[in-house]
Amino acid sequence: PVGVPGLLLGGGVSYFANTRGWAADHVFNYEVVTADGQILDVNAKSHPDLFWALKGGGQSNYGIITRFDLEVFPLVDIYAGFIVQTPAYVKQLVQAVASYVAVGGGSFDPNVAIALTLEFAADTRAVTGVSTLFYNSSSDPAPKALENFTSIPVAAPSTVSERTLTSFINETIVTGTRGSRQLFRAGSLKSTPEAVNLIAETYLSMVPSLKNISGCLVTLGYQELSQAFVQATQDNGPDAIGLNPSDGAIMTYLAASSYESASDDAYLNRFLTELVNEIEEKAKAANLHYPFVYINDAGAGQTPFEYYGGGKSLPKMREVANVYDPKGVFQKLNSGPFKLF
User: Fold this and answer.
1) Rounded to an integer, what is the distance from CA 272 to the centroid of its chain?
2) How confident is the model at residue 2 (pLDDT cuts 50, 70, 90)?
3) Contact, 59 vs 336, CB < 8 A?
4) Cα separation of 295 and 299, whole Å?
5) CA-to-CA dists, residue 159 to 81, 142, 175, angstroms
6) What would the pLDDT profile of 266-307 be if each residue is shown by its tens digit?
7) pTM over 0.90
8) Would you say residue 315 has pLDDT above 60?
9) Per-residue pLDDT at 59
C-alpha cells in the first residue's frame, strides 16, 4: 500500500503512535463501494463488522474505499529531524537503539518516536546509518530520550531542531527514494536490547556477500511498537490487527532494497528472503521471535493476516468478506498481494 489510504488500511504507524496507537484507530467513518455497487457509510454503529475489518485488513479485500473521515487533534511545535552516521559509528548507533528499548530507556517516553535505517551501498561496500528522531514537544531543546542518538558524531549536519510538523514532513519527502525499483520483506521480534543486536548482527554479517550492483541500496530499518503504543491500539480500537498489550513491546524490522534494473529482481528478492529467514531462525533459537508481520512493510509471499489477533482474526475477516462480497469479486478479480482466501 502507498499513500494515505494504504497507510490507514494497513494500520499505520505515525510519529504520535505511543499515545494514539494505529492511525486507523482514528478513522471514525469509511465510505465504501461494494462489489454489487452499494455505497455504504461504515462506522461503529453502521456495519460495525466491516468497520473492524477495514482497520488493518482492508487492502483490496472488501470494497473500494472512497472516503476516510478522521479524528483530528491540535499540534504543537516539535523537536525532530535526521542524523546521518558514517560507517565508523554504525555499531554505536545500533547500541543507541538497544539502550532506547531497554527498560527505562527512551522508548518509555510517550512523546518520542524514532526510526533507524542501516544502508548498505552495493557499489561502495559501505554501511551508513540514518536516524529519524521525533519528540512531540519543543519545550526541551535536548530531550533525554534522544540523547544516545544526538551524541553520536555525524557525517553531515544534523537537521534535528525545534520546528513545525509541516517543515519536518517536507524534509522527509525530499529525502525519500523516488524513481527506483523497490523490494520489501518484514518481520518482528520481542523488543529487547538482545533483539536489536541480533537483527543488526545478522544484517551486517550478510550484506558483504551481495554482488556489486551499481546504484543498489539494501537497507534494514527498525520500528519499535512500544508497550504504550500497543496499549493505545487496544484503548482506541478494536481493530483486526489485534495486538495484545500483555505481550509487551514489539520490534518490527524492514529489510528492503532499491535498485535500477529488473534483471536484479530475483537476486535481491532471494537475498531479502534469506536475510529475514535467518533473523527469524536466530530469534526463535533465542526465544525472541514474535509472530507478527506489519502489512505495510510486508513483501509478496508473506502472510500477515495469519498473525492478526494471535491467529484469531482471519476467520472473522473471511466471514466479513463473505457478507459484503459473497461472489469474491475482490478476492478473484482485483489484484493485490494480501488476500483473505
Assistant:
1) 16
2) low
3) yes
4) 8
5) 5, 13, 12
6) 999 999 999 999 999 999 999 999 999 999 999 999 999 999
7) yes
8) yes
9) 80
Per the CB < 8 A criterion, the answer to whether 139 and 77 are in contact is: no
Quick one: what percent of the chain has pLDDT higher than 70? 98
Cα–Cα separations (whole angstroms), residue 38 to 229, 304, 316? 35, 29, 22
Within 148-249, strands assigned E span: 161-163, 181-190, 217-225
Could you report how far apart the first and last alpha carbons of the chain are, in Å?
19
Question: Over pLDDT 90: what percentage of the chain?
Answer: 88
Cβ-based neighbours of 246, under 8 Å, separated by 6 or more: none
C-alpha cell at 283: 530469534
**Amino acid making up residue 134:** F
The residue ranges of DSSP E strands in the chain, in sequence order, are 27-33, 39-42, 64-70, 78-85, 112-121, 126-135, 161-163, 181-190, 217-225, 250-259
- Mean pLDDT across 83-111: 95
Mark 20-57 as b/e (b = at least 16 C-beta within 10 Å): bbbbbbbbebbebebbeeeebebeeeebeebbbbbbbb
Amino acid at 280: E
The Cα–Cα gap between 290 and 211 comes to 31
Burial (CB count within 10 angstroms: exposed 0-12, middle 13-18, buried 19+), residue 58: buried
How far is residue 317's CA from residue 303's CA, in Å, rounded to a whole number?
A: 14
DSSP characters over 166-177: HHHHHHHHHHS-
Which three cell numbers, joined as nine digits, stand for 69?
473521515
